[in-house]
Automatic annotation (TrEMBL):
GO terms for molecular function: L-glutamate gamma-semialdehyde dehydrogenase activity. It comes from the Eukaryota. The keyword ATP-binding does not apply. One of its GO terms (biological process) is L-proline catabolic process to L-glutamate. GO terms for cellular component: mitochondrial matrix. This is Multifunctional fusion protein. It catalyses: L-glutamate 5-semialdehyde + NAD(+) + H2O = L-glutamate + NADH + 2 H(+). It comes from Frankliniella fusca. Pathway: Amino-acid degradation; L-proline degradation into L-glutamate; L-glutamate from L-proline: step 2/2. Keywords: NAD, Oxidoreductase, Proline metabolism. Its EC number is 1.2.1.88. Residues 82-549 form the Aldehyde dehydrogenase domain. Belongs to the aldehyde dehydrogenase family.
Length: 567
C-alpha cells in the first residue's frame, strides 16, 4: 500500500539532493572457492615428516617466551607460568604470564577502540587476509603448529595433523568463504529506480571475549578469529595448556596484516578474566568452548550484570558431552570395535565428541568384547614423538586425578568390572591406560557424567530390551553432543534416528562419534552440551555479525495525504 502511494507521487525531474544514487555496495571476492585441507601422510622419508621432526626438535629444546599482547605492546607480569609437556612434565616448552585485572581492562579498551577502525576495513580485504593466513598455515607454519600442539597438548602426529593443521586451516578458509557468500543475499528492492534496499554486515560495537579450551588448537583459532573476521575487536584468553600453539596462530594472523589491537592475546587466571569481562559495559559477546560449569558461571554473571551493558551480549558456548555408541544386534562387529576404540581412546578420550558409554546387545557381546580387548591390548600409550604411539598422556594433573578417581570408583564398586586397562602413572607424564569398564547399572554415575579421559563404560543389554535402552540413554545425562548407532537393520535404524533425535547435535550412523570435518559436519551439541551454533557451518559467521538494513529512496516524498483521502 505504501509503495503504491509512492508510485502515485512520482515526479519526472528529481531535486538535486536525491540524485547521487546508492551509498551502499556490498562487494564480494570473485572466484573464491574452498575445499578441505588434505591430511598429510607422514610416511617415512616424506617431506612433511622431515619438517615436523625438525620443528619438534626446535620446540623441545627451547622454553619460548610468550608475552601478553595488548595492541602492539608485549607485556610480561610478575605472575610467571610455564607450559610443560604432559607426557614428560618436567620439560617446559613455554614461559608465559597471567594478565592482571587492570591489564584485562586495558585490553578491553584497546579492542573496543580498534573495533571502530577495523569494522571499516572492507570485508573483501579481511577475507583476503584470512585466505593468505590459511595458506601460510598449510605451508610455512604447518610443522610448527603441529609440533607445538603435539608437545604442548600431548597429541600424536595424526591427532595434531587433523587439528592444528587441517581443522584450523579449514576454519580459516571456510569462514572466509561463508562470509563472502553473505554478499549473495540482497533484500528485495521492488522498484530499483525508486529505491534500493541493502543489508550490510557490521561488527558489534564493544568487544568479544574468546575463551578457548586446551583440547583443540583449531577451536582457539576459530573462537577468536571468526568474530575478528566479521569486524569485531577481540580479547583471546587461551587455555594455559594450549599456550604455545595458540600463540603461533596469533603471530600468523599478525603477519598477514590483522592490525594490532583487533585480537589481543590475554592469558589470565580464568576467574580473573571472567569476572573482568562480565563487569565491562562494552562486553558484546562471549565465544566460549569448555566445560559446563565454566560456561554456566559466565552466563550467570552476564545475567546478573545485564543492566550495565550497551548490547545484549551474545553468548555462544560449546560444552561437554557424554557421547554414546548404541549397537544393535544387526551391527557389523568390526565397525563397532574399530569405531569404538578410535572414538573412546584417540587423544586419550579428550575430544568433546569421544564415545564414553556404549550399549551392546548380549548376542554380540562375546565378539565385541574379544575385539575390543584384543585391539586395546595393542595400543601403545607413550611419547608423542614415537610414531608407534596410538595416544599419549592426559593433559595435566587435574585431569589425571579426575580420571583416576572414576577408575578407582569403578574398582571399588561391585556394579563394575574393569575388563581392560585401569593403570594410571603420573611419575613422568600423566599416563592413563585405555580403560574398558562393564557396568551393570545404566543409571550409574559413570554412565552419566563426563569423564573426559580414556575410559569407556559398557552396558550389555538383553537384545529384546533395545527400546528401553533407547529410552534410558536419551534421558540418562543432561548432555546431547554426539551419538552413534551401529545397525544394518534398516527398519531399526530408521526408527532409532527419530527416537534419538534430541540426544545429539552431531549424530552418526554406522560411524564413530568423533571426527567431524569443517564444511562436512557442522559441529555443536544441544541441551547442556551447548548453544549449538554449529562451528564449521555456514551460519556461524552470522552469530558474530551485526547486520544493518539500509533503505535508500531516490524519489521525493511530495505529500502527506494518501490518494484515497482525496476522494
Ligand atoms: N562442544 C564442543 O565443541 C567442545 C569442544 C572442545 C571441548 N569441549 C569441552 O571442553 C571441556 C574441556 O576443556 P577445558 O578443560 O579447557 O574446559 P574449562 O571449562 O576448564 O576451560 C575452558 C576455558 O575457560 C577458562 N576458564 C576457566 N574458568 C573461567 C572463568 N571463571 N571465567 C572465564 N574463563 C574461565 C579456562 O582457563 C579455559 O581457557 C570438556 O568439557 C569438553 O567436552 C567442548
Ligand atoms: N570436532 C571434533 C571435536 C571437537 C571437540 O573436542 C570431533 O568431531 O571429534
Amino acid at each position: 500500500m505504501y509503495n503504491l502511494c509512492r508510485q502515485a507521487q512520482r515526479v519526472k525531474s528529481l531535486p538535486n539532493s536525491l540524485q547521487f544514487g546508492s551509498l551502499v555496495s556490498v562487494e564480494k571476492v570473485p572466484n573464491l572457492s574452498v575445499k578441505n585441507e588434505p591430511i598429510l601422510g607422514y610416511l617415512p622419508g616424506s617431506k612433511e615428516l622431515k619438517e615436523l621432526e625438525s620443528a619438534l626438535k626446535k620446540t623441545a629444546s627451547n622454553v619460548e617466551d610468550v608475552p601478553i599482547v595488548i595492541g602492539d605492546e608485549e607485556i610480561r607480569t610478575k605472575n610467571v607460568k610455564y607450559q610443560v609437556m604432559p607426557h614428560n612434565h618436567s620439560k617446559k616448552i613455554a614461559q608465559y604470564y597471567y594478565a592482571t585485572p587492570d591489564l584485562i581492562q586495558k585490553a578491553i579498551k584497546t579492542a573496543t577502540e580498534a573495533q571502530k577502525k577495523w569494522d571499516r576495513v572492507p570485508m573483501s580485504e579481511r577475507i583476503n587476509m584470512w585466505m593468505k593466513a590459511a595458506d601460510l598455515m598449510a605451508t610455512k607454519y604447518r610443522a610448527q603448529l603441529n609440533a607445538t600442539t603435539m608437545l604442548g597438548q600431548a597429541k600424536v602426529v595424526i591427532q595434531a595433523e587433523i587439528d592444528s593443521a587441517c581443522e584450523l586451516i579449514d576454519f580459516v578458509r571456510f569462514n572466509a568463504h561463508f562470509a563472502n557468500e553473505l554478499a549473495d543475499y540482497s533484500p528485495i528492492s521492488p522498484n530499483p529506480k525508486e529505491g534500493k534496499n541493502s543489508l550490510r554486515y557490521r561488527g558489534i560495537d564493544g568487544f568479544i571475549a574468546a575463551v578457548s579450551p586446551f583440547n583443540f588448537t583449531a577451536i582457539g583459532g576459530n573462537l577468536s578469529y571468526t568474530p575478528a573476521l566479521m569486524g569485531n575487536g577481540v580479547l583471546w584468553k587461551p587455555s594455559d595448556t594450549a599456550l604455545l600453539s595458540n600463540y603461533t596462530i596469533f603471530k600468523i594472523m599478525r603477519e598477514v596484516g590483522v592490525p594490532a589491537g583487533v585480537v589481543n592475546f590475554v592469558p589470565a587466571l580464568g576467574p580473573d578474566f571472567g569476572d573482568t569481562i562480565t563487569n565491562s559495559e562494552h562486553l558484546a559477546g562471549i565465544n566460549f568452548t569448555g566445560s559446563v560449569p565454566t560456561f554456566s558461571r559466565l552466563w550467570r554473571q552476564v545475567g546478573e550484570k545485564l543492566r550495565i551493558y550497551r548490547n545484549f551480549p551474545r553468548l555462544i558456548g560449546e560444552c561437554g558431552g557424554k557421547n554414546y555408541h548404541l549397537v544393535h544386534s544387526s551391527a557389523d562387529v568390526t565397525s563397532v570395535v574399530n569405531g569404538t576404540i578410535r572414538s573412546a581412546f584417540e587423544y586419550s578420550g579428550q575430544k568433546c565428541s569421544a564415545c564414553s558409554r556404549a550399549y551392546i546387545p548380549k548376542s554380540l557381546w562375546p565378539k565385541v568384547k574379544e575385539g575390543l580387548l584384543s585391539v586395546r591390548d595393542q595400543l601403545l600409550v607413550g611419547d608423542v614423538t614415537d610414531v608407534k604411539s596410538f595416544t599419549s598422556a592426559v593433559i595435566d594433573k587435574v585431569a589425571f586425578d579426575r580420571i583416576k578417581g572414576y577408575i578407582d570408583y569403578a574398582r571399588s564398586s561391585n556394579k563394575h568390572e574393569i575388563i581392560g586397562g585401569g593403570e594410571c602413572d603420573d611419575s613422568q607424564g600423566y599416563f592413563v591406560q585405555p580403560t574398558i569398564i562393564v557396568c551393570k547399572d545404566p543409571s550409574d554415575k559413570i554412565m552419566k557424567e563426563e569423564i573426559f579421559g580414556p575410559v569407556l563404560t559398557i552396558y550389555v543389554y538383553e537384545d529384546k530390551d533395545v527400546e528401553s535402552v533407547i529410552e534410558n540413554l536419551s534421558s540418562a545425562t543432561p548432555y546431547a553432543l554426539t551419538g552413534a548407532i551401529f545397525a544394518q537393520d534398516e527398519k531399526f535404524a530408521r526408527s532409532a534416528i527419530e527416537k534419538l533425535k534430541m540426544t545429539a547435535g552431531n549424530f552418526y550412523v554406522n560411524d564413530k562419534s568423533t571426527g567431524s570435518v569443517v564444511g562436512q559436519q557442522p559441529f555443536g551439541g544441544a541441551r547442556m552440551s551447548g548453544t549449538n551454533d554449529k562451528a564449521g557451518g555456514p551460519h556461524y559467521v552470522l552469530r558474530w555479525a551485526n547486520p544493518q538494513s539500509i533503505k535508500e529512496t531516490f524519489v521525493p516524498l511530495t505529500d502527506v495525504i494518501y490518494p484515497y483521502m482525496k476522494g
